[in-house]
Amino acid sequence: MTDSELIRLSAADLATLLAAGEVSAVEAARAHLDRIARIDGDRDDQGRARGAGIHAFLHVATERALADAAEVDAARARGERLPTLAGVPVAVKDVLATRGVPTTCGSRILRGWVPPYDATVVRRLRENRLVVLGKTNMDEFAMGSSTEHSAYGPTRNPWATDRIPGGSGGGSAAAVASFEAPLAIGTDTGGSIRQPAAVTGTVGVKPTYGAVSRYGLVALASSLDQAGPCARTVLDAALVHEAVAGHDPLDSTSLPTPPPDVVGAARHGDVAGLRVAVIKELHGTDGDAGAGWQRGVRARFDEAVEALVDAGAKVTEVSCPSFTAALAAYYLILPSEASSNLAKFDAMRYGLRVDPEGFPDPTAEQVMAATREVGFGDEVKRRIILGTYALSSGYYDAYYGSAQKVRTLIQRDFAAAFEEADVLVSPTAPTTAFPLGSKLDDPLAMYLNDVATIPANLAGVPGMSLPGGLAEEDGLPTGVQILAPANADDRLYRVGATLEAILLERWGGPLLDRAPSLDAIQEGSR
Description:
Elements: H1 3-7, H2 11-20, H3 25-39, E1 42-43, E2 49-50, E3 57-60, H4 62-77, E4 89-93, H5 120-127, E5 131-136, H6 170-177, E6 183-187, H7 194-200, E7 203-206, E8 227-231, H8 234-244, H9 262-267, E9 275-279, H10 295-310, E10 314-318, H11 326-341, H12 364-375, H13 378-390, H14 397-420, E11 423-427, H15 443-447, H16 454-459, E12 463-470, E13 477-483, H17 489-507
Parallel strand pairs: 4-5, 4-6, 9-10, 9-11
Antiparallel strand pairs: 1-2, 3-5, 6-8, 7-8, 7-12, 11-13, 12-13
């Protein structure tokens, strides 16, 4: 098998070949590392991207990945019983602490920080003997929808290198879409797994809040953050989901209940008799949240709904009126929590330290101010200021308190909707991938990319995005979002696997097979 054939295998198929001894873990790791070296591009001495590569990775752990792969091969040669995904490569978003590997959160303020411990998600990947290839690029501290807010330069969409790969986890989605890794881990605070999946033609899942440990996940908004899988197939996402989910006593918000059988649901998808409801406010036809929806996105979504009907699902429409206020509430709750969480980056213990000019004996406050001025980017500063204001005396009830009331209304809308339906569906993002730089000067336009994904985070329910086809306007991927009640993540995989199978048959193969030649990325061409 050639390297080109190997890197295009699904994680499930690669795992089967590894278990059978037809491919070694070292061969799999080396093929993907070579792919990264060929198309990801290089960086300057400050870690910033340069050239026309994908730039999905901030750090590639070549030596450690090959050593871990060799250990898997040795264990298999000894006849040890290994986990399903043993030897399969995986990329990890750079917001998860990884022992011995730089973890920067896409920020200058953490440049060079090497954690002494693994996040629980990373530990579970290692326990399942996956091979960590490296850390992927992201919007700084997960604040953004395009991966352009990374201090180390933007990631490019493999479908068109002049387009964004989504955010904040565009690096993980782009790594999977460009065959640099068969699997990746992302985090989703308001859509940061699902929106990148939609615009790169991949599968992304936000599990139920608390289903996957947040221990070692550098917090943006503690009540919203959730780690989850990025993959090229629904089954692959389920396999990663199963590997990292489960109770963790190190995380006080971790659910004590065992996770549902997501792999079984992905292997035996069936929607006959299932009640599926289209969310009226997120369909692009009515309500304030409907503004700005691309015609091709809506067309592909409507076709996906028709496919579910053909498969035996009972499709209706449901109204969730509070969803139209979700964006406003989110951009008060998230900045408020971010303002609190990012206060720890103070130049006192680790990370960047800048001594202010003109102060021979600066105070701690002066060092902190100088460091945060240099270390944080514009978007992070914007949200810290907004959040600090929303929490300030005299404004707390008017802003943060009111936003939390809206959050309660959104949770009630979900509860009412799930009395009428087993799952809810909508487009994942209102548009396909937009050109790099086109929305950097318009924060509100950037925020609107998450209008369909934010409600799930505010309510803590699970969500999946899977490829819905290509928009006729630009030939770029669209996404279909599936939402389920809390702790019913298996429903996502049941519906996702069914829809995936139908669409794959219609397309005549995986959507990524229709992407432009990725071998041309080095030349920066589409």
